Amino acid sequence: MFDAILIDKADDAQTVKLTQLDDDALPEGDVTVRVAASTLNYKDGLAVTGKSPVVRKFPMVPGIDFAGVVESSTSPDWKEGDRVVLNGWGVGETHWGGLAGKARVKGEWLVPLPDAFSMQQAMAIGTAGYTSMLCVLALEKNGVTPASGPVLVTGAAGGVGSVAVALLAKLGHEVHAVTGRPEESDYLKALGASEILDRAEFAEKGRPLGKERWAAAVDVAGGQVLANVLSQIRYGGTVAACGLAAGMGLPATVAPFILRGVTLAGIDSVMRPKADRIEAWTRLAADLDPALLASMTVEVPLSEVIPTCERLLAGQVRGRAVVPIDPSIA
């Protein structure tokens, strides 16, 4: 038996509880993993609270990330004892995820966990940090360098934003951080931000083209925030968009694209090809200072996941929320 968060639905009413399951309940897959740690992302918060139809199949174990050790495998790619990490692939949505003591998944969804990180450090990074690295790689592939000019990060005190600030600063970029929580200014400066901007500056409708301020941006917000960011990107700049915290819409014009040659790079982390995932984790091992992970991480026991998800959606959780499940696994 193992502990798990389980979401179910009956008569259009969602229920969620901490319970115990046995191995026979696990879904199909060719690799069974003993989960060492998971994490809480915005999508997990939506799934657990039921505030958005994230879960497509019931019952469901949420958790779009996990790190652990292979317990058994019929996949030729994995053997017992391998250290692995999983991000996305619909786990926690259509396939049981990581907020449980065990997970059974397709071997092709797993990637090797770099030796640079412990299991809990891997989950301090999680999908948020992995997505941040994909954003940074997109900026680099579009020619953005530290010499290009400052880089803006929206939602900077959240999971994606925190890691993006730390990564960009470590790589030598001047980082400007947007947050709606001014009390987090010292935290963001410790991660490497040189300027803190109030989210309210980006919340109202702006001009189709504003003053050219940033060479690039990592945006987790979408909506009006993204529209205002695009209007202030320098000629030839790039915005990597990976979130919708401020809305699904994009009330922008084509002006930044056709008059300034701005590139809007969409970043998907869920179905990303395995080669891209390995590249991102390899770069994280090289470019993310593990010492910073502790400052951006809070630990949430499995028993506290449900109430913490409410706080997460309310913007009351700083950085990354790690859920230790089996700390005995290194």
Which helices and strands appear, and what pairs or packs with what?
Blueprint: E1 2-10, E2 13-21, E3 31-40, H1 42-49, E4 65-73, E5 83-87, E6 102-105, E7 111-112, H2 119-141, E8 151-153, H3 159-170, E9 175-179, H4 185-191, E10 193-198, E11 214-219, H5 223-230, E12 233-241, H6 255-259, E13 263-266, H7 274-287, H8 290-293, E14 297-299, H9 305-313, E15 320-324
Parallel strand pairs: 8-9, 8-11, 9-10, 11-12, 12-13, 14-15
Antiparallel strand pairs: 1-2, 3-4, 3-6, 3-15, 4-5, 5-7
Helix pairs in contact: 1-9, 2-3, 2-7
Q: Domains counted in the coordinates: how many?
A: 2
Tell me the strand percentage band: 25-35%
Q: How would you describe the oligomerization state of the chains in this entry?
A: single chain
- Overall pLDDT level: 95
CATH architecture of the largest domain: 3-Layer(aba) Sandwich
Following the backbone from N to C, one meets helices and strands in this order, namely: EEEHEEEEHEHEHEEHEHEHHEHE
In the predicted model, the low-confidence regions spanning at least 5 consecutive residues are none
Backbone structural class: alpha/beta
Output the number of helix runs: 9
